[in-house]
Write a structure and sequence with these properties.
Largest sheet of chain A: 6 strands, antiparallel, barrel
Strand content of chain B: under 5%
Largest sheet of chain B: 3 strands, antiparallel
Helix content of chain A: 25-40%
Oligomer: heterodimer
Number of helices of chain B: 7
Radius of gyration of chain A: 35 Å
Largest interface: A-B, 43 and 39 residues
Number of strands of chain A: 12
Shape of chain B: globular
Number of helices of chain A: 7
Structural class of chain A: alpha+beta
Strand content of chain A: 15-25%
Distance between the termini of chain B: 15 Å
Number of strands of chain B: 3
Strand order of the largest sheet of chain B: 1-2-3
Helix content of chain B: 55-70%
Radius of gyration of chain B: 16 Å
Distance between the termini of chain A: 128 Å
Chain lengths: ~375, ~180
C-alpha cells in the first residue's frame, strides 16, 4: 500500500485534495449551511488590508484635492452633500406624511411615528467573481448589522446584507440576478417582484400582462418581503412590454444615481405610505377650488371668479336682479313672469334685504360715516 | 526571515525547483486576492483580471512539485470562495487545485522561463479555469450559467498578456542559492 502511495504520490495528493473539497461542497449543498469559520478567517484577513488601502487612497486623493485643487471646497461640498442627503430623506418622509395629512391623519402620525434607525457604511471592495454585484462594506456585526438588513441611499434602495462578519458585511446589490424584493408601482398600484438582470439593470417580475404599467412610472418598495420598509423609491420604468407569460418591466434603479460609495443600512425600519402619483414631481400650477355657494360676492376669490363668467351667467344674473327689483319669486305658481323691460336699480341686487329698494344711491358729495 | 523551500519534488529535480521566502508565499496570493477585491471598484474593466489564478500558475510552475501546486491552488481557491457569499466553499478551490496540479506537472517537464511558453500556459490555464468552473457550476450546483467561449478566449489573451510581465516581476522574488 505504501509503495503504491509513494509511487502515485502526486496523483494521491490531487485526489485527496479534490475529495476533501467535494465532501465540503456536498455538505454545504445538502445541509444548506455554510462553513462560517473559513469565511470569517478570509474576511477578517482581507478587510483590514482593504480598509487600509481605502484609507490610504482617500487620504492621498483627499490631500491633493483639498490643498492643491479645491482647498476647502471639497470639504464644504462633502458637508453639503451629506446635508442634502439628509434633507432628501427627510423631504421624502415629510412628503409621504403630507399625503397622509390630507387624509386627516397627519397629526397622529407625526406624533406617533419615529424615523427608522440607520447606520452609514462605506463600500470597501467587491466580491471576487461577482462583477461588482456583491460588495463589501466596512460595518459588521460589531455595528449591529445582521444578515437580511436593507441597504439604501437617499435616492433609493441599493441591496441587502447577505452575510455579516465582525468587521465587515457583504451586500448583495439589486442588480444581482439572485436579488428579490417586493415592489409596488406608484400610479397603478401594481405589485411585483424586483430582480436584477445581471447586467447592471433591474426588472419587475410576476406582473400579469393585463396589468397596466407605464414608462416613467415610479416603483416603490411594498414592504411585503419584510426586508425593505414600505415606501422607499426603487426606480422608474424605462420599458414595459407584454411577455410570453408575464409582463417584462425594466427599471432604471434610482439608488445608484449619485454613485455608490456611502450607503445607509436600515437597522430598524419604518414603513411609509407610497406617495400619490404626481405629488413627487409637481410641475403644473393648479388653481384653487371655486368658492362655496354662500361665500361673499365681494371676496377676492369671488371677484376673480367673476372674470370667468359666461354670457349665460350674466343673463341669469340680470333676470335675478329684475325679479328681486319687482319682488317676483321665480317658480311660484300663478305669478307669471316679471317685466323684463324695466331696468332694475343697479344696487338692488347687492344691497342687503333690509335696505328699501327705492332708496337713492348715496350722493358723491355726502359725507361718509 | 529564513529561506524556505516549499515543495515535495523528487531529489533529482529538486535542484531546479525555485525557492521563495515565506513572506512572498503568503503575501503575494493575499495581494492578488486583495487586488481582485479592491481595484475593480475603481477600474471596472480590471475585474476580468484573474490574478489569483496567475499567481497559482506561477508558483506551481516554479516549484515543479504537484503536491505543492495542489495545496497552493486549494488554499487560494478556498480563500476566493470565502469572499463570495452564496457560493459554497470548494468551487474555486477544486478548479485551482487542478490548475496547480497541472501547472506543476508541466513545470516538471519544461523549463518555464521562456516568455512564449509562459504566455501559452497562462492562456491555456485561464481558459481551462473558466471552462471547468462552468462545468462544476452546472454539474455540482445545478446552476444554469452560460459559457461564452469567445469572451473567455479574449479574456484568456488579456490575462496571458498580463501574466508575462507579472511572472517576470515575480522572478525577482526568487531566492538565489
Amino acid at each position: 500500500m505504501d509503495l503504491i502511495l509513494n509511487r502515485y504520490r502526486n496523483l494521491t495528493a490531487l485526489v485527496a485534495a479534490i475529495l476533501v473539497q467535494l465532501v465540503l461542497l456536498g455538505y454545504q449543498v445538502k445541509s444548506n449551511q455554510e462553513v462560517r469559520l473559513i469565511r470569517v478567517w478570509a474576511i477578517s484577513a482581507v478587510t483590514p488590508l482593504a480598509r487600509l488601502l481605502e484609507g490610504g487612497r482617500s487620504s492621498t486623493t483627499g490631500f491633493f484635492k483639498d490643498y492643491f485643487v479645491l482647498l476647502d471646497v471639497r470639504e464644504q461640498n462633502k458637508r453639503l452633500q451629506t446635508e442634502l442627503n439628509r434633507i432628501q430623506l427627510e423631504n421624502q418622509y415629510l412628503r409621504s406624511e403630507l399625503d397622509t395629512a390630507e387624509r386627516g391623519k397627519a397629526l397622529a402620525v407625526f406624533q406617533e411615528h419615529a424615523r427608522g434607525k440607520t447606520i452609514a457604511a462605506r463600500i470597501i471592495g467587491n466580491s471576487p467573481g461577482s462583477n461588482g454585484r456583491v460588495v463589501l462594506i466596512d460595518r459588521g456585526t460589531g455595528s449591529g448589522i445582521q444578515a437580511g438588513m436593507a441597504v439604501i441611499t437617499p435616492s433609493g434602495i441599493v441591496g441587502k446584507i447577505v452575510s455579516a462578519y465582525p468587521t465587515a458585511s457583504t451586500l448583495l446589490l439589486v442588480t444581482d440576478p439572485t436579488f428579490a424584493a417586493g415592489v409596488i408601482s406608484q400610479k397603478n398600484r401594481v405589485h411585483g417582484t424586483l430582480k436584477g438582470t445581471g447586467n447592471g439593470g433591474v426588472m419587475v417580475d410576476h406582473v400579469q400582462n393585463e396589468q397596466m404599467v407605464e414608462p416613467g412610472e415610479w416603483f416603490y418598495t411594498s414592504g411585503d418581503d419584510r426586508i425593505f420598509p414600505k415606501g422607499h423609491p426603487v426606480g422608474t420604468v424605462i420599458a414595459a412590454r407584454p411577455g410570453r407569460t408575464v409582463k417584462e418591466i425594466f427599471l432604471s434603479p434610482s439608488g445608484f444615481q449619485n454613485g455608490l460609495e456611502d450607503v445607509l443600512v436600515i437597522l430598524e425600519g419604518d414603513h411609509a405610505p407610497i406617495p400619490e402619483a404626481g405629488a413627487a414631481n409637481q410641475s403644473v400650477f393648479l388653481q384653487p377650488l371655486p368658492p362655496a355657494d354662500g361665500e361673499q360676492a365681494d371676496s377676492p376669490t369671488a371677484t376673480r371668479s367673476r372674470g370667468a363668467e359666461t354670457d349665460l351667467d350674466r343673463e341669469v344674473e340680470k333676470a335675478r336682479r329684475i325679479g328681486e327689483d319687482q319682488k317676483h319669486v321665480f317658480g311660484e305658481r300663478g305669478r307669471g313672469a316679471p317685466d323684463f323691460n324695466k331696468v332694475p336699480d343697479p344696487g338692488a341686487g347687492r344691497t342687503p334685504v333690509t335696505t328699501p329698494a327705492t332708496s337713492a344711491p348715496a350722493s358723491p358729495a355726502a359725507p361718509r360715516p | 526571515m529564513s529561506d524556505t523551500a516549499v515543495g515535495f519534488s523528487d531529489p533529482p529535480r529538486k535542484s531546479r525547483a525555485s525557492k521563495f521566502k515565506w513572506v512572498s508565499i503568503v503575501g503575494i496570493p493575499l495581494a492578488a486576492i486583495l487586488f481582485q477585491v479592491y481595484v475593480p471598484r475603481f477600474v471596472t474593466t480590471l475585474a476580468y483580471l484573474e490574478l489569483p489564478l496567475l499567481v497559482t500558475v506561477y508558483f506551481s510552475l516554479m516549484w515543479r512539485s504537484p503536491p505543492s501546486g495542489v495545496l497552493f491552488g486549494m488554499c487560494i481557491g478556498l480563500a476566493q470562495d470565502s469572499l463570495v457569499p452564496n457560493l459554497p466553499l470548494g468551487m474555486f478551490g477544486i478548479v485551482k487545485t487542478l490548475v496547480g496540479y497541472f501547472a506543476a506537472s508541466v513545470g516538471q517537464r519544461f523549463e518555464a522561463n521562456s516568455a512564449v511558453l509562459r504566455l501559452v500556459l497562462a492562456f491555456f490555464f485561464f481558459f481551462f479555469h473558466q471552462f471547468f468552473y462552468w462545468v462544476l457550476a452546472r454539474a455540482l450546483l445545478g446552476q444554469a450559467v452560460s459559457f461564452e467561449p469567445v469572451q473567455s478566449l479574449v479574456l484568456a489573451i488579456l490575462n496571458a498578456a498580463v501574466a508575462v510581465p507579472l511572472f517576470h516581476i515575480l522572478d525577482k522574488l526568487r531566492v538565489t542559492e
